[in-house]
């Protein structure tokens, strides 16, 4: 395997990091010369060669930067490395084909438009290529390869007929072209899937190669030699210290016990992540990387934790799942109470409660690995070193995931995530504890325990006050005000919400809640002033504020203004706003529309006092005082919610008066 040793990648550094090596990176690719030589020999000798290994062990890198440069163009003809995962664009821009796998493979070999390839078989394509001979006029073998060949069994859209047609075409091409050689590179857990096709593809000439993690000497070569083209080098024992660190795993059990293990192999993806991060973290004037530099800058656990955080963030964004939820699931599912790796099997749609699509993405980014056992697909962490990386995280990640769980009324999950955040925080991190107490208060409200919620909110407010966090105090006071509002303690609600708005005047939802509390205590005009101010600023509670202002304006006999607001929220009608709009229509003289909407409101009123009172007023306006009195009596008796006192007096005036 030839190498100049004097190249860098496009980032200006000699390590490629997380991505796979490409053929142009061959001058940076070390530690795999024996494997590259052996695979190149097998590929040229056998009809079928299967290269397999765990995810992240470096199969793609070895094929591109190791094996291909080893093959002399004068001895063999090598087609570009193929892929058979269908590009969605192929399925849209071409007419129906017998196998999308075939079209995908041909498209990876040729720059021709898909329409020109759609009718070709694998044999057709190879037949059209000019024959090559060596200097003795003997045919030159043609080498074809398919990377990530497990996509034959997992690609989308996967159809068994596509697979059968694809394998049949490969077999036909191998039969017709005696010098054709096929290499399949695939994940180890899919080996059982290729066995049924091994005989027809290999035709009596087949070999298997198991790619393992780096041994120590190979890892040292992959660490040191990429620096040959730079002005840096590793000093005495420095590279050894880095590799030793990668081979050393410290396990912490839930009981606080510590166990130190030494593993035999070094995962190539981890080596690249750590070396790349070390290169970036060194001061610019460092030319000899000493053991002390490695101790100071090559914090393997910190680098791997950063790697995990980046990967989990990508997966979370791709699947719209909270990052903290994924990390919490990884910790619960794949780290035992003894601090060792656990396993979980893949179900039809989920793996231990996580959607399989998310789990497959975690495998793709080298967080998990899979293997088949007893007919089932089992997952575990890619490496023991990831245990500490998964356990280490910013508590805010869990707090954010807990807030997301709260928004979905997942009370138990929100509590668990918040408890995890507290466990991850430093003992004296008052900010995390304050946020946690506020979330615990919200959970208590959701589970119907207002007394505990009140205590939690008080504790959170005190901590935020110590931290001089006015925004935190304001949020907690707003939560207390909403709790008081829901319990019917309107005076307390006004007090708490007024204090909250004073601290966080931009919180539109708190202002809307304050307006609602003011309306309940008989101060509708004060409520309008608050709502007018909130709506002038804007915010995420716009519809709620408009609806409440429309309701209050209807109650104050201002139908034109009320309808202006209520028409804007018509697609989000609740019984209260529906009844208020019906009242505004009646006050505006639009009686037919008012009667219809009043009927709808009454049908959904239940025991809602304000809704029943508005319906009673509509009946009186329409000239049916008896029906109005009946509805007013129901409104006085209603309790879900009960009439505020200022509306209760209004309802009494609609009742028959004694002689």
Automatic annotation (TrEMBL):
<dbReference type="InterPro" id="IPR027417">
    <property type="entry name" value="P-loop_NTPase"/>
</dbReference>
<dbReference type="InterPro" id="IPR049052">
    <property type="entry name" value="nSTAND1"/>
</dbReference>
<dbReference type="InterPro" id="IPR011990">
    <property type="entry name" value="TPR-like_helical_dom_sf"/>
</dbReference>
<dbReference type="Pfam" id="PF20703">
    <property type="entry name" value="nSTAND1"/>
</dbReference>
<protein>
    <recommendedName>
        <fullName>Novel STAND NTPase 1 domain-containing protein</fullName>
    </recommendedName>
</protein>
<feature type="domain" description="Novel STAND NTPase 1">
    <location>
        <begin position="14"/>
        <end position="387"/>
    </location>
</feature>
């Amino acid at each position: 395997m030839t190498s100049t040793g004097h190249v860098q990648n496009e980032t200006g550094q000699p390590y490629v990091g997380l991505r796979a090596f490409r053929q142009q990176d061959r001058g940076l690719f070390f530690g795999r010369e024996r494997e590259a030589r052996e695979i190149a020999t097998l590929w040229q000798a056998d009809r079928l060669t299967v290269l397999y290994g765990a995810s992240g062990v470096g199969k793609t890198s070895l094929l591109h930067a190791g094996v291909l440069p080893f093959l002399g163009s004068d001895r063999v003809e090598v087609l570009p490395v193929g892929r058979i995962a269908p590009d969605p664009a192929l399925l849209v821009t071409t007419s129906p084909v017998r196998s999308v796998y075939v079209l995908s493979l041909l498209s990876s070999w040729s720059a021709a438009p898909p329409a020109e390839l759609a009718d070709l078989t694998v044999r057709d394509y190879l037949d059209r290529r000019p024959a090559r001979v060596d200097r003795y006029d003997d045919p030159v073998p043609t080498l074809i390869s398919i990377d990530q060949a497990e996509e034959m069994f997992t690609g989308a859209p996967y159809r068994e007929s596509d697979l059968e047609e694809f394998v049949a075409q490969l077999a036909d091409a191998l039969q017709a072209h005696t010098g054709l050689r096929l290499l399949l590179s695939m994940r180890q857990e899919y080996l059982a899937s290729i066995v049924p096709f091994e005989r027809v593809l290999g035709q009596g000439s087949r070999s298997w190669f198991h790619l393992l993690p780096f041994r120590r000497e190979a890892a040292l070569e992959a660490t040191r030699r990429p620096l040959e083209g730079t002005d840096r080098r590793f000093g005495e024992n420095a590279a050894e210290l880095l590799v030793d660190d990668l081979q050393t795993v410290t396990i912490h059990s839930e009981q606080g016990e510590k166990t130190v293990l030494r593993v035999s192999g070094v995962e190539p993806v981890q080596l690249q992540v750590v070396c790349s991060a070390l290169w970036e973290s060194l001061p610019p004037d460092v030319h000899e990387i000493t053991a002390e530099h490695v101790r100071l800058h090559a914090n393997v656990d910190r680098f791997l934790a950063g790697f995990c955080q980046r990967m989990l963030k990508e997966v979370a964004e791709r699947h719209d799942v909270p990052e903290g939820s994924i990390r919490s699931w990884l910790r619960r599912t794949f780290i035992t109470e003894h601090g060792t790796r656990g396993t979980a099997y893949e179900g039809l749609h989920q793996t231990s409660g996580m959607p399989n699509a998310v789990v497959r993405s975690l495998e793709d980014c080298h967080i998990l690995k899979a293997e088949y056992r007893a007919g089932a697909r089992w997952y575990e962490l890619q490496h023991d070193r990831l245990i500490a990386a998964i356990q280490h995280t910013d508590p805010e990640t869990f707090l954010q995931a807990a807030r997301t769980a709260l928004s979905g009324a997942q009370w138990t999950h929100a509590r668990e995530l918040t408890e995890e955040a507290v466990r991850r925080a430093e003992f004296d991190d008052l900010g995390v504890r304050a946020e946690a107490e506020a979330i615990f208060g919200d959970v208590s409200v959701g589970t119907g325990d207002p007394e505990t919620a009140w205590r939690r909110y008080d504790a959170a407010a005190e901590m935020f006050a110590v931290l001089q966090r006015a925004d935190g105090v304001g949020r907690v006071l707003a939560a207390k005000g909403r709790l008081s509002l829901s319990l019917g303690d309107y005076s307390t609600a006004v007090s708490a919400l007024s204090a909250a708005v004073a601290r966080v005047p931009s919180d539109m939802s708190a202002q809307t809640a304050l307006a609602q509390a003011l309306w309940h205590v008989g101060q509708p005009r004060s409520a309008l002033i608050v709502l007018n101010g909130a709506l002038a600023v804007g915010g995420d509670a716009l519809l709620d504020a408009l609806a409440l202002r429309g309701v209050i304006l209807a109650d104050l006999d201002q139908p034109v203004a009320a309808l202006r607001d209520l028409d804007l929220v018509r697609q989000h009608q609740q019984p209260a706003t529906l009844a208020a709009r019906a009242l505004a229509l009646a006050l505006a003289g639009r009686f037919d529309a008012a009667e219809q909407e009043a009927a709808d409101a009454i049908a959904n009123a239940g025991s809602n006092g304000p809704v029943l009172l508005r319906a009673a007023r509509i009946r009186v306006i329409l000239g049916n005082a008896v029906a109005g009195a009946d509805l007013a009596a129901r409104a006085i008796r209603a309790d879900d919610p009960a009439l505020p006192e200022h509306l209760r007096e209004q309802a009494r005036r609609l009742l028959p008066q004694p002689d």
